[in-house]
Amino acid sequence: QKEVEQDPGPLSVPEGAIVSLNCTYSNSAFQYFMWYRQYSRKGPELLMYTYSSGNKEDGRFTAQVDKSSKYISLFIRDSQPSDSATYLCAMGGGGGSNYKLTFGKGTLLTVNP
Amino acid sequence: NAGVMQNPRHLVRRRGQEARLRCSPMKGHSHVYWYRQLPEEGLKFMVYLQKENIIDESGMPKERFSAEFPKEGPSILRIQQVVRGDSAAYFCASSPRTSGGAETQYFGPGTRLLVL
């Protein structure tokens, strides 16, 4: 079983839709959780990070963590064509190191105008 | 404030040649991390460096790969005698510190290595 599982998609939605992206993980030692956005041929850009169960909101983005289920989600409201990218979940703090991030494979999202 | 800089952005090498990838961290950042993204795979941690020190190289292949972060100048990831399986995107990230709490790493644009 991989440490982090993420459905690679692709996911295609119309503009204005609510998008839900998810990851599951197996390592209960993970302490903090991040979502990165990666445009084609670019580096990952940090969108959200949190280190507790519950919700964290930033504009149109909401990150949700459920440590008991080992499940994290990213919701995008009022999705825009500019949101079209690959979304990567990442986790850290497992295995005694705070710096080593473990990434999912990424979900490719396309928002159609 | 310039972000993390990597060069070259694209690098083509023939099998057996050496590849040198450079990373300049964000201003004020003294911690550098290298990750590799193979086709159809997620980013994998390779190595963590501070100035003049390798802190954790547990993700580095045991042979042909080395990394350094000298007192002056950029961090270098060096791959000797490249093989086709080394073709990937190599990303550098930097952070200002390591703490017991949340750690944020800012990524560069990556170097895409193609081995012919």
Short key terms for the protein model shown above:
heterodimer, A: 113 residues, mainly beta, six-stranded mixed β-sheet, five-stranded antiparallel β-sheet, globular, B: 116 residues, seven-stranded mixed β-sheet, 11 strands, 0% helix
Quick overview:
By secondary structure, chain A is an all-beta fold. Chain A has strands at 4-6, 11-14, 19-25, 32-38, 45-50, 54-58, 61-66, 71-76, 85-92, 102-103, 107-112.
Structural account:
Chain A is mostly beta strands. In chain A, 0% of the residues lie in helices and 53% in strands. Chain A contains no helices and 11 strands. In chain A, strands 2, 4, 5, 9, 10 and 11 form a 6-stranded mixed sheet that branches. In chain A, strands 1-3-8-7-6 form a 5-stranded antiparallel sheet, with no helix packed on it. With 116 residues, chain B is mostly beta strands. Helix content of chain B is 0%, strand content 48%. Chain B has strands at residues 5-7, 10-13, 19-24, 31-37, 43-50, 53-56, 65-68, 75-79, 88-95, 106-107, 111-115. In chain B, the strands form 2 sheets. In chain B, strands 2, 4, 5, 6, 9, 10 and 11 form a 7-stranded mixed sheet that branches. A 4-stranded antiparallel sheet of chain B has the order 1-3-8-7, with no helix packed on it. The relative contact order of chain B is 0.34. The chains are: A mainly beta (113), B mainly beta (116).
